[in-house]
Amino acid sequence: MKERRTGRVRRTAVEYRPPFLVSGPREALTPLARRLAALPVVASVTPGTGRPSLFDRRVRPLLSVTPERNAGRRALARTVDALGGYETFTLYDVDLTPPQLYHLGHALYPFAPVVGRGPELCATEPAETVDYATPPLRVARLEVRIAGERRGRIPPPDGRLGSVRLGDVTLEGPEDDLLRALVNELARSDPDILLTQGGDSFDLPWLYRRAAACGLTPAEFTLGRERVGFRPSRPARSFESYGRVLHRSASYPLPGRFHIDRENSFLYDDAEIAGLVDASRLSRLSLATVVRQSPGTCFTAMEMAQALSLGAHVPWKKNRPEDFRRGDHLVQADRGGVIFLPPVGVHDHVDEFDFASLYPHIMVRKNLSAETLECRCCPKSPIRAPGLGYRSCTRRVGLIPRALAPLLARRLAYKAALKRPGIPTEEATRLKRRVKMLKWILVTAFGYQGYRNARFGRIECHEAINAYARALLAALLPEAERAGYSVVHGIVDSLWLRPLSLDRPLDPERFAEEMSARFDLPLGYEGRYRWIVFLPAVTHGLGVPNRYYGLYEHGEFKLRGIGGRRHDTPVAVRRFEGEVLSLFRRARDADGVRALLPQALARADLFAARLAAGDWPVDELLISHRIGQEPEAFVTFTDSVAALRQLADAGARRGAGEFVRFVLLDRESRSFRHRVRAAELLTGDERYDREAYLDLLARDAETLLAPFGVDREMLRRRWDVVVAPPRERYRSPERPSQSALASASVYEGS
């Protein structure tokens, strides 16, 4: 054990090398043990017995293998797997990190209040405590600027630091003095968390690059509390999730401090520090891990903790295949939730109801887990999935319900605390962040049941959950009609209901309470809309379940599927959308919205005139696209491809899953140099493609106003008369003629 005190923080290190387990036939484990014992990378091999899997009903022979170094844990596991031909042995607890295992083995967790020192540390409260004191974390923002360069542009290879901002302090001067001053300021303010916007991809690499150029060693320059070299703990990578290609920048940890890069975090903007700390406590994962991973990673870690507490272990590779089924059964089972197509148009007096965490509640109520579904011990179980017949165990509670029940109770407790009268604003904000974090985790708990690589997932559980949800909505609709409602819209776990008669007042709160008691699931009343607009599909014109906008009576908007919710919408178009919504805020009902349509069109005319004048700031016209594949794989010449080629020419390659931002200069051009201008290469005096941006404005206006008979063709005809935009496009002085472009290389125009 080592201890070292740095300012107000004390570092304690304990030597800990946890083993992993190997299960297999006894006749294969005995020679494996002898072979492993002879390897220098193995500290010990201990035979034993146990029930490592949740599905095990009998004791199995096991080997407990301890690596010589924790860093060689996975390499040793791959060796064991290879020695068994990748099918003889089943390995457990391989990819649980030593900190996870140490926390679980010693009843500790991140941010735990503790007493004692070293190996004798003891948490004074369990991780599941709902009302706990917030850890006193100091947060400082860090921002680096390159001399002579606007932030966001591609800095030259020989660029030098111009300034560094840490918290409220801005540091300037010669580079070596600036870097030393940064180290001193870090020692003085001693933040626990450095918060950056693009720190993993820009700020931290540049600081350490310039420190090396100035000859500063890790002992002289470091951003953490530990004097160690600068290297990524995880390289940059592209991956696919739920059909989308995503990119995660390299992770640069700062030993002794946490680094949160908002651009490299899925969760920070919703959960912030309060939600991340809560997830870290419950998952036993470091804050640095939680902030860079998905909510599914947190839930998987919670499942792992629950499995270990039950005496089971975590399989390294999921090896449970899907059960064989008939084709007609698959058609019946492979269905999602209930969706009603909403009627296109504007509606008023609409009440919205929502089942709070419906799917997780079903999983708990119906005991849905991989090992409890279709169990051998309960062939006559009365708990059966509607229409599918899948049985749930009645003798033991499954792993998934055990993991979910405390999370559901925790979320309900936080939401109840938010309703307390006189709750301080700071505490309310903290609770809202925790609620948001728990919501993300609970959502992924359902999705992971159908994920092929989920350690404790099972597709039949996924199907059963949907079957219970469909039956619930089918039973709820007649109850709503008996109460005096008609159904306007419904999607999975939410219903939009309108009173059959406006002369007969209904009590939505009472209806929600009665239905909660009737179905033993918490139905919440979200509020009444002054008005809500359901939008049509571009293709067939029918209502789209997740495209609408509406104003609650308490004054808040709910927006789904419109331009402001899309990452590729330029700021200028977002401004237009914001002004139209602000205008519609005045309306008290559906007729009031219709009456404001002429004013909304007049706003569109004003924006069109400003765009047509050609003087809109180009930084508000940036379009952002996510790259769906590697740049070399594109065969069609698009705006994104043009921007990617510009960046490649400037030495800034983008990979699959990353975003590329650009301004349209001439959408008809077949030259990547003149079609767009990448955001990193903007000078500010570009002349944008006015026609292209008028089309974008018309498309967004059509999205908002289509239920009122407005479409983009009508808007363009209107603007030709009202605005009369000049048909002029950007031409660079060095732009080649069209005949020259026609004979250009494939790289230029394909």
Question: What features would you describe in this structure?
Answer:
The chain has 750 residues and is an alpha+beta fold. It has four domains: 2-123, Alpha-Beta Plaits; 139-268, Ribonuclease H-like superfamily/Ribonuclease H (Nucleotidyltransferase, domain 5); 332-560, Palm domain of DNA polymerase; 562-750, Orthogonal Bundle (Topoisomerase I, Chain A, domain 4). 37% of the residues lie in helices and 19% in strands. It contains 23 helices and 26 strands. The strands form seven sheets. Strands 16, 17, 18, 19, 20, 21, 22 and 23 form an eight-stranded antiparallel sheet that branches. Strands 11-10-9-12-15 form a five-stranded mixed sheet. Strand 21 (523-536) and strand 22 (543-552) form a beta hairpin. The protein is globular. The model is unreliable at 1-5 and 727-750 (pLDDT under 50).
Topology of this protein?
Layout lengths: L1 E5 L2 E5 L6 E4 L2 H12 L4 E9 L9 E8 L5 H11 L6 E3 L5 H8 L8 E2 L6 E2 L15 E8 L14 E6 L2 E4 L2 H15 L3 E4 L2 H15 L23 E5 L2 E5 L9 E4 L6 H16 L3 H6 L2 H15 L17 H7 L5 E2 L4 E3 L2 E6 L2 H8 L33 H20 L6 H23 L11 H24 L2 E7 L2 E6 L8 H12 L3 E14 L6 E10 L4 E4 L10 H14 L5 H6 L1 H17 L9 E4 L12 H11 L9 E6 L7 H4 E3 L11 H16 L6 H11 L15 H5 L3 H4 L1
Parallel strand pairs: 9-12, 12-15
Antiparallel strand pairs: 1-2, 3-5, 3-6, 4-5, 7-8, 9-10, 10-11, 13-14, 16-19, 17-21, 18-20, 18-21, 19-20, 21-22, 22-23, 24-25, 25-26
